[in-house]
Amino acid sequence: MGSLPIIAAFYEQIDVFMLVLVRTLAFFIILPIVSGMSIPMIVRINVSVIIGAAIFSSGLVSEAVYAPTIGGFTMMVVMEFAAGFMLGYMVFFVFSIILFVGHILDFMMGFAMVNMVDPLLQIQVPIVGNFFFMAVMALMIVTGGLANFIEAFVASFMVLPLGAANILDNQDIAVFVVGQMTAFLIIGVQIALPIMGALTVINVALGIMVKASPQMNVFVIGMPLKILVGLFLLMPTMAGPLGSIYNSLFEHALYALTEMIWGLRPYEW
């Protein structure tokens, strides 16, 4: 008998729980590590339901205000899905810089024609980029970075009540996303620049050698040489700067997620 009032109260707010669950599912669809196809769908759904239930019962969620019709509730579901997806995408966008760096290095080293399928993303990715991406994801798990992103998402319900996200006519978010794209290119080039510089010097040297000795087969010498030098330069990168690269990406991703949460607030706030 004691549980009946709790069950009745839950069913009175079943719409609120469904909206919380939609935003949570959308966030985990794109969030790195959790969104990987190697994780069974049933596991991802169960994790989203557990976290959504914890958020719903925590008192952080306010009442949902919408037109009491099917169309009104459908619009709320679409808005909450879009809000959750945008928050998760900002984290994925920042960490995909590693794949961008991999594309650059693979092109410089001669691996551009040899891609592989990422078991997490189920897309064609560069060899070097996938290697770095998996290493960064491992660091995210070990350092607790994934928990920090989930905490920031949970806090979004205090800043963005259900149905309050300003998505359609938000110029500030558009400007912020464009700025993040610019930062994406700058950070990616900065990470790849040391190895790019060394490989560029090798290309210049090979060009001079071809001019000096036209009968030399530059492809026979150049391709193995660039691969050897590239792999040699990647070894100290994995031993030392990788931690600094991860810390920089983590701080930038957490900043981007926080700014996206505050940027989606209604203008009247």
Could you explain the architecture of this structure?
- The protein is mainly alpha-helical and 269 residues long.
- It has ten helices and two strands.
- The protein has a two-stranded antiparallel ribbon with strand order 1-2.
- Helix 2 (14-30) runs parallel beside helix 4 (70-95), helix 7 runs parallel beside helix 10 and helix 8 packs antiparallel against helix 10 (241-263).
- The longest helix is centred in the C-terminal third of the chain and has 42 residues, at 171-212.
- It is elongated.
- The two termini are 43 Å apart.
What is the structure about, briefly put?
The protein is mainly alpha-helical and 269 residues long.
In angstroms, what is the radius of gyration? 24 Å
Helix/strand order: HHHHHEEHHHHH
Unreliable runs, pLDDT <50, ≥5 residues?
none
Largest sheet: 2 strands, antiparallel
Biggest sheet: strands side by side, in what order?
1-2
Q: Got a strand count?
A: 2
Helix content: over 70%
Protein structure class: mainly alpha
- Average per-residue pLDDT, rounded, comes to 77
Question: Span between N and C termini?
Answer: 43 Å
The number of helical runs is 10
Shape summary: elongated
Strand proportion, as a percent range, falls in: under 5%
